[in-house]
Amino acid sequence: MSRPVQKTKVPWAWQLQAAGWAARNIISLVVDCGCGKTLAAIMIALIKQKPVIVIAPTHRLCDQWREAIKESDNNADVWLYSKPEETKQGEYYRKRFETWLKA
Questions:
Q1: At what angle do helices 59-71 and 37-48 cross, to 10 degrees?
Q2: What radius of gyration do the chain's Cα atoms show?
Q3: Residue 55's beta-bridge partner residues?
């Protein structure tokens, strides 16, 4: 049974529970499309106050992440990994990633 698509920025109970896992080193969110993984991950990034890496398989998903981070009005430090971007501009992408890690 699928959950309804999340259309608001008010966290659901499972997202608040996931935010409670922020002390863990690795967190994997396996949830249906449209259920709010992005919001939950941004909440976790804010709680951790450490850089977070997001691996998204397509440019479209990376663009959605960028938009969600901008809309969240916070200082979440999130690195988006995009294989097509990395493949086309490998050296530039690697330098940006290293700079981000050192920040």
A1: 60
A2: 14
A3: 81
8-23 pLDDT per residue, tens: 578 888 888 888 888 8
Domain assignments of the chain as residue spans, ordered by start:
13-102
- For residue 31, what pLDDT band results from cuts at 50, 70 and 90? confident
For residue 35 the two structure tokens come to 């259920």
Q: What is the pTM of this model?
A: 0.61
> What contacts 24+ positions apart, CB below 8 Å, involve 70-75?
71/9, 72/9, 72/39, 72/42, 74/42, 74/46, 75/46
How does residue 27 score in pLDDT terms, banded at 50, 70 and 90?
confident
